[in-house]
Amino acid sequence: MVIDISDLEFRWQTDAPTVLSIEALGVEAGECLFIKGPSGSGKSTLLSLLAGVTTAAAGTVRVMDQALESFSSVQRDHFRADHIGYIFQMFNLLPYLSMLENVMLPCRFSARRRAQALARGHGLEAEARRLLQHLDMDHAELHQRAVTTLSVGQQQRVAAARALMGSPELLIADEPTSALDADRRVSFIQLLFDECREVGATLLFVSHDAALEHLFDRTVDLAVTNKALSDRVEA
Amino acid sequence: MAILSLAWQSLRNRRSTASLTVISIALSVTLLVGVERLRTEARASFANTLSGTDLIVGARSGPVQLLLYTVFRIGDATNNMSWQSYQDIIAHPRVAWSVPISLGDSHRGFRVLGTTSDYFDRYRYARDRQLAVAEGQRFADLYDAVIGAEVAEQLGYRLDDSIVIAHGASDVSFARHDDKPFRVAGILARTGTPVDRTVHVSLEAIEAIHVDWQSGAPMPGISISAEQARTMDLTPKVITGALVGLKSKVATFQVQRFVNEYPQEPLSAILPGVALSQLWDLIGIAENALLIVSIFVVVVGLFGMLTALLTSLNERRREMAILRSVGARPGHVFALIMGEAGFLTLLGALLGLSLLYILLLTGQPLIESRFGIFIAIGGLSGHELILLGAVVSAGFLVGSIPSYRAYRLSLADGLSVRV
Question: How many CB pairs under 8 A join A and B?
Answer without folding.
Answer: 71
